[in-house]
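Issue 218. Parser rejects a valid record. Input:
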Amino acid sequence: TIQDVVWKAPGGGRFRLIGGIMLLAYIAALIVLHRTRFGRNVYALGGSVATARLMGVPIARTTIAIYAIGGGLAGLAGIVYSIYTSAGYSLATVGVELDAIAAVVIGGTLLTGGSGYVAGTFFGILIMGLIQTYIVFDGTLSSWWTKIVIGGLLFAFIMLQKALGWATTKGRRPGNASATRS
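Output the parser choked on:
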């Protein structure tokens, strides 16, 4: 079957087709977002619509393209998941939304928008994978602890983002004496 397609590594490890698809999508996202005009438009639009408009970014076209690419990637993820499980059950991934949001936020993307990178999201996925693997292989904890730990980690990162945002804006207020001194 297509699920059994593997490449053998020199050390005896195996690299599956699904991992290859993920790496190709990751590399394509890195190239598109960091090396093309469309990528610059996406970052500009994520920062501020008004500023992007002043920069000459085609707002409607870029927004439609972002949603189209997002839908295409969601479809690709569904196909890959169906290949992985050898089944097509539409409710199989209910509840994975928390994991997706947590991976992005742990990777450094602000929930308010305007800041974030694909590489950061990749590291967020790796951190979440380590947490899930540890809890599952520990054996003494229920698998529900992964959701609890990831939810707590998400909450901690949101609070950290709020604190950093507050500290940054506090330094820019006109009445702040430390900001006006040279």
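Fixed in the parser; the record now loads. The mean pLDDT is 85.
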